[in-house]
Specification:
Two copies of one chain form a homodimer. With about 130 residues, the first copy, chain A, is mostly helical. Chain A has two domains: about 60 residues, Multidrug-efflux Transporter Regulator, Chain: A, Domain 2 (Orthogonal Bundle); about 55 residues. In chain A, about 70% of the residues lie in helices and about 0% in strands. The longest helix of chain A is centred in the last third of the chain and has 38 residues. Chain A is elongated, with a radius of gyration of 23 Å. In chain A, about 25% of the residues are buried. At the A-B interface, α3, α4, α5 and α6 of A face α3, α4, α5 and α6 of B. Chain B binds a DNA duplex (30 and 30 nucleotides) through α2.
DNA sequence: GCTTGAACCTGTAGTCGCTACAGGTTCCAT
DNA sequence: ATGGAACCTGTAGCGACTACAGGTTCAAGC
């Protein structure tokens, strides 16, 4: 049963020391045992948990949903459907955000092109910003 | 020269009262004159400025860049090229964010599909979350 | 002129997910 | 025994608002 420090856990899990402490503070990571001097001591389970959290964050899940995902995982029973619903809901939000950003990119791109054409005396980008929704 | 209250400015410009006060606090909106009793009094210029800010925010520009855009607009000289550079830089960030989100959406979509197929005893989404980067 | 109550005022704290200190202690290799 | 890297706690800051609390002013109706 190998044991390691918070710095090593950070390295293994691809996160940062402060982030791990933050997750502990908000109750996402369990409080680990300590050395006599008060340093945190971690094991493989903590590493697994941290990787799970990091991966979930990479997929854009907010902390509270990761908390829920962890609960579902620990229940071990058929929470799969529940997980799927959560993931699909999240997917919906991600796609909606993509749409928003795509609309932004299009306007930016179009107005910047106008700029390049140089057909106007005034700046087309500033003009676009002054116009109705 | 029509004058109006902060609530009316919020309605006209499509923003909120608190947001307008916030913009004033951080120096993005000029301090307006006040009534004897201390209520803010706005005119068309404030409305124009608020619309400019709101539109810029809709396009995703951060506050500090909006501050710069306003400066450029007020200079009135040929700041167009500078504006264009700022817009293109921002466009780059937006596109990069779209890529990130698209990658997230793809993973979410694929794993949720696996789920639907039901070929695994364990939840494929939770499995995906437990896996390396 | 008086009374309501909606809209306004200031100031502060909370949101999310970290990140960055400051000021101190512990660990471990030499 | 010593030095310095890594750890500890606690707090403040980021961006862009939002949401109070507790008070004051305005304007419409009687």
């Amino acid at each position: 049963m190998q044991a390691f420090s918070i710095g090593e856990l950070a390295a293994k899990s691809g996160s940062k020391v402060e982030t791990i402490r933050y997750y502990e503070r908000i109750g996402l990571m369990a409080e680990p045992p300590r050395t006599a001097g008060g340093h945190r001591v971690y094991g493989p389970k903590h590493n697994k948990r941290m990787r799970f959290i990091r991966r979930s964050r990479e997929l854009g899940f907010p902390i509270e949903e990761i908390r829920a995902l962890i609960d579902m995982e620990e229940r071990e029973d058929g929470a799969c459907e529940e997980v799927r619903l959560l993931a699909l809901e999240h997917l919906g939000r991600v796609r909606s955000r993509i749409q928003d950003l795509t609309a932004m990119a299009q306007v930016l791109c179009e107005t910047a092109d106008h700029c390049a054409e140089g057909g106007s005396t005034r700046c087309p980008i500033l003009d676009a910003l002054s116009v109705e929704s």
